[in-house]
Design a protein that fits this description.
Elements lengths: L1 H17 L9 E9 L3 E9 L1 H11 L9 H18 E5 L2 E3 L1 E3 L4 E3 L10 E9 L9 E8 L9 E7 L4 E5 L26 E7 L8 H5 L11 H7 L4 H20 L5 H11 L3 H28 L6 H36 L7 H14 L8 H12 L4 H12 L3 H37 L5 H33 L1
Parallel strand pairs: 1-9
Antiparallel strand pairs: 1-2, 2-7, 3-4, 3-8, 5-7, 6-7, 8-11, 10-11
Helix pairs in contact: 1-6, 5-6, 5-12, 6-13, 7-9, 7-13, 7-14, 8-9, 8-11, 8-12, 8-13, 9-11, 9-14, 12-13
């Protein structure tokens, strides 16, 4: 029964472990809404995913008691809305105008993965100087100049109420994300980055619309689900603990099977350099160690240094380091292959006397690892490349464990998550290494010189693949940092 439950949870967890928040656990998403009725109002909405919300709540909770009370929440909302109002540059008919608070801001902390809160803030502003001449045409431009370095969805919309009319606009009237509550799946990989909206409008001659009409139908985003984080934050029993450990192992394995995470790299490098069962175990150990260490480094940044280092930028730096390491692996692998081929071309193996053969064997031992084995440095580098970039799910588990005073339990689950990753990548290294040795043993039996030549090129092509992968990783990471 428990095994069936584990399998069911693993299947259900595959999409949710990619990102508990629809757009990503690190995102801060913003929407500007221009509303035209009997007057002009500008609504500013911020939706923080679990990780930035966790960081922000540490600031809101001035008493440090782990609870955001009404006074703390109201103070933060007023201060943040005041800052947001300054960041909104508004131009009416060609002249700069100021904004003032139209209503009390609204702060909510919707539950996210594992009960970890997200954060939603709504600010409402009116123009400091009322627009004169109801019925006359005017032009308004709003630009959101806020930039805290966070990635996320940014949109601007404009809509009319109560007899007001929008005559022309360069932004839509409907929110594609339903005001940051329902992000369309086909835009998650490439969210919009719209920060400016211009509208030509005419105000209503009538009284202002009711608050219900202004609010429209803005739904609340449903709580996110992450089965592992939910187990950390829920009730505990021996059965639940065992289930959580098994689930963590399975999710780590699934995470390693998802795009990226060094599978191609490990396969290509082992194909080029060879690998024994010992090498595979070394790679697996270093994957588990590097991933677990990466999660804790990111957790400490989130808890203690988020004002100095954004977690997503730390991930980008780790990715850049991984790319540089992979590039170095490719260079070293190609250099070793070239040296080996050069030695073989100068000293055909079957024509040597015993003295020269012994000398060649000693020289080979000093210049490179024995055929079919990886050096511990190479295994360490492969493990770092495969596991150094921590998964968002593992970080969420750590934050849930901290917030529920279950740090030891969280540490165990993060460690088993890394072991699940290590089993996949280390197992891949073992399988590829054995296939390579089998193929190498078959080379001598190949009748065609062309076939033998093609087989000898496979390690070189694998080395080129490692080098190309490292360069691609480095360029992508550098792009995120810039």
């Amino acid at each position: 029964m428990i095994a069936a439950t584990v399998v069911g949870l693993l299947v259900a967890a595959v999409p949710s472990t990619v990102s508990a928040h629809p757009l990503g656990n690190y995102t801060v998403n913003r929407a500007v809404v221009i509303e035209v009725g009997a007057a002009i109002e500008v609504r500013y909405i911020v939706d923080m995913a679990e990780i930035p919300a966790f960081e922000t709540i540490q600031v809101i909770d001035a008493e440090g008691d782990g609870v955001v009370d009404e006074a703390e929440g109201a103070r933060f909302a007023r201060e943040r809305c005041a800052t947001s109002g300054v960041a909104l540059a508004v131009t009416l008919d060609g002249r700069r105008v100021q904004l003032r608070d139209a209503r009390e801001p609204k702060l909510d902390l919707p539950a996210g993965a594992g009960g970890l809160p997200t954060l939603r803030l709504e600010c409402r502003f009116a123009l400091e100087s009322p627009v004169a001449g109801a019925g006359a045409q005017h032009q308004l431009m709003v630009r959101d100049s806020s930039d805290d370095g966070r990635i996320g969805w940014r949109e601007v919309t404009a809509r009319a109420f109560g007899g007001g009319a929008i005559l022309a606009a360069d932004v839509p009237s409907q929110s594609e994300s339903r005001f940051l509550t329902a992000y369309p799946e086909d835009r998650i990989e490439g969210p919009p980055d719209v920060r400016t909206g211009t509208v030509r409008f005419r105000l209503s001659r009538y009284a202002a619309p009711t608050p219900a009409e202004i609010a429209g139908s803005i739904d609340t985003r449903p709580p996110a689900s992450d089965p592992l984080a939910a187990l950390v934050g829920g009730g505990l029993s021996p059965a639940i603990v065992g289930l959580a450990v098994l689930l963590s192992l399975g999710l780590g394995a699934l995470h390693a099977l998802s795009p990226g995470h060094g599978k191609t790299l490990v396969a290509a490098y082992v194909l080029g350099a060879g690998g024994t069962a010992r090498s595979a175990v070394q790679i697996g150990i270093w994957v588990a160690v590097s991933h677990t260490a990466g999660v804790f480094v990111l957790g400490m940044v989130t808890l203690l240094a988020s004002q100095l280092f954004l977690p997503e930028r730390v991930i980008a730096w780790l990715s850049l380091g991984s790319g540089i390491v992979v590039t170095g692996l490719g260079v070293v692998l190609l250099a070793r292959l070239l040296m080996r081929n050069s030695r073989h071309s100068h000293h055909p193996g079957h024509s040597h006397d015993q003295h020269h053969a012994d000398h060649h064997h000693a020289d080979h031992q000093h210049s490179a690892p024995a055929q079919g084995a990886l050096s511990w440095r190479s295994a360490l580098a492969l493990g770092f490349a495969g596991g150094a970039v921590p998964s968002a799910s593992a970080l969420i588990v750590l934050l849930v464990a901290i917030s529920t005073d279950r740090l030891l339990f969280g540490v165990v689950l993060i460690g088993t998550f890394g072991i699940g990753m290590a089993a996949v990548l280390g197992g891949l290294a073992l399988v590829v290494g054995r296939l390579r040795r089998f193929a190498s043993g078959s080379n001598d039996r190949l009748g065609s010189p062309l076939a033998r030549r093609a087989a000898s090129l496979v390690p070189v092509l694998a080395g080129l693949a490692v080098l190309a992968t490292g360069i691609a990783f480095s360029i992508a990471a550098a792009g995120r940092l810039s």
